[in-house]
Amino acid sequence: MASFVTANALFISYSVPFYFFCSFIPEILVILHPKQKTAKRMGGFFGTVSKAECVTDLFYGTDYNSHLGTKRGGLATYAKGEGFMRSIHNLESSYFRTKFESELPKFKGNSGIGIISDTDPQPIVINSHLGKFAIVTVAKIQNIPELERDCFLSHNAE
């Protein structure tokens, strides 16, 4: 059985000398299931890397995605010597700009990621053997029950 997955991921790291962007079917951010009457929103993300401070670009770039989701928003930046700065807010009762505008002075750095999400609080900051990462993802898997069933059936067959 083929799975229909739309996924995007973006992360920044201070320990890896490159910035990674991975996208599968990036032009499809809204998926309409055949039995669904309306589309489910997936959210959107924005990332920037610059030689100068990027906070303003990150703020407005992420705000531009506000029409893609209404539950949560988050920003993370990295500044050499200071590390990661991150903030996540609930957007169900107010707009992205209203929630984040007063916090902009605390953000510093020349690389950052922002997200508008209808599912998880993000960005996620992860410590691993490769270093520390700030990650955002946007994904929608259409056939989770079938994939779970197939996974359990194949695992029990072994």
Task: Outline the secondary-structure elements.
Blueprint: E1 5-13, E2 20-24, E3 43-49, H1 55-63, E4 72-79, E5 83-90, H2 96-100, E6 111-117, E7 124-128, E8 131-141, H3 144-157
Unreliably modeled segments? 1-7, 14-39
The end-to-end distance, rounded to whole angstroms, is 19 Å
Q: What's the helical proportion of residues?
A: 10-25%
Number of DSSP helices? 3
Mean pLDDT figure: 76
Number of strands: 8
Radius of gyration, in Å, reads 17 Å
Please give the order of strands in the largest beta sheet.
2-1-8-7
The portion of residues forming beta strands comes to 35-45%
Category by helix and strand content: alpha+beta
Inertia-based shape? globular
Query: Tell me about the biggest sheet?
Result: 4 strands, antiparallel
Order of helices and strands: EEEHEEHEEEH
Describe this structure in words.
This protein has 158 residues and is of the alpha+beta class. The protein is built from three helices and eight strands, in the order βββαββαβββα. Strands 2-1-8-7 form a four-stranded antiparallel sheet, with no helix packed on it. It has a four-stranded antiparallel sheet with strand order 3-6-4-5. A hairpin with a 3-residue loop joins strand 4 and strand 5. The chain is globular, with a radius of gyration of 17 Å. The two termini are 19 Å apart. The model is unreliable at 1-7 and 14-39 (pLDDT under 50).
